[in-house]
């Protein structure tokens, strides 16, 4: 049985389903100023609050996936062999290895005292936002925009002490600082920049971690494109998004809390074309942060690198549209800004403790929050390895197909508007 060349994407998708089934905690930390507040985006919510029929092809896809896989994550007692790992990659299925990195030098050494000694009198790049909402949908003057952080170089000791003091004092009013890899100066948010800061900015720490994860290097037959270090505290939350990388994530200090959705859940996440905006300081060095719209491409003072962020990983949005396609549904607030398919999503939740290792497959949506134990030092630190995904197999084109069908069959909305 073959697939007919129908021009109707839904009919094509239904025929594909006949050929094969497509199967391959922490309380929400959301500030009311973010896009996810219940009184925002009412026009979008009202146009999408009707559930899709059960026999809808996209509904069948998501339901079938849930029935075959379940909303849980496999926990391994030890690192997989390369062959075992390749089976997970082939199935596009996450897993966690408890304590896999407990013996790493990083997990034995990287406390506050050591970090301050190594980076004494050195500056690092820091993302600064008012609410911990770097690279996130955010309300701005009646519209929803993609808010990028203000970036500045700060003395490392000043940065780390600020993070720790804010966490321990339970300060929820001051600006949030986060050492992250998603530099706005590199590329678009759906294709992560290869910042590789552990082999550059934080090079003195690199010898304390493996240069590659052995089972991943052998199975994937490649070295990591980037090895990244992340330092922050509980007020920093990474909004729901996906990456074109096989991701090995290792927790060093504090806890990370992941909410995961498989690629077939694109119809659930309410992808919306958002205009980009960037936080900047008003006046002096420590001035108040203000959110300003980015200049469209070709306008006076614009930069090509900003316009290039408008092209998503499936290429649906282009630089000329000056928008960024981004998920605007929050699985921790499922009734807000939902699509007709959002109720079908069954998020997988996992918390990483120090020494734990997570395999996050390519194209999986993930929202990440973090917390510090009461007896901890007041900061969260993690390292991750990005391995480029294999684009030539079925995963990428099928994911793009689901996305295209979802976008073409979605009800008309006033995207990027709030009431």
Q: Quick gist of this model?
A:
The protein is 22% helix and 25% strand. The protein is α+β, with helices and mostly antiparallel strands.
Q: Can you walk me through this structure?
A:
The chain is of the alpha+beta class. The strands form four sheets. Strands 1-2-16-10-18-8 form a six-stranded mixed beta sheet, with no helix packed on it. Strands 4, 5, 12, 13 and 14 form a five-stranded mixed beta sheet that branches. It has a four-stranded antiparallel beta sheet with strand order 9-17-11-15, with no helix packed on it. The chain is globular, with a radius of gyration of 21 Å.
Q: What keywords describe this structure?
A:
419 residues, alpha+beta, Jelly Rolls, six-stranded mixed beta sheet, five-stranded mixed beta sheet, globular, RmlC-like_jellyroll, Phospholipase A2
Mean pLDDT rating: 84
Corresponding CATH architecture: Sandwich
Specify the overall morphology.
Answer: globular
Number of self-contained structural domains: 1
Write out the strand line-up for the largest beta sheet, numbering strands in chain order: 1-2-16-10-18-8
Strand percentage? 25-35%
Helix and strand composition category: alpha+beta
CATH superfamily: Jelly Rolls
The CATH class is Mainly Beta
Element order: H for helix, E for strand:
HHHEHEHHEEEEHEHEEEEEEHEEEEEH
DSSP strand tally: 18
Sequence stretches where pLDDT stays below 50 over 5 or more residues: 1-7, 9-33, 35-47, 183-192, 301-320
Report the span from N to C terminus.
49 Å
Helix content: 10-25%
**Major pleated sheet:** 6 strands, mixed
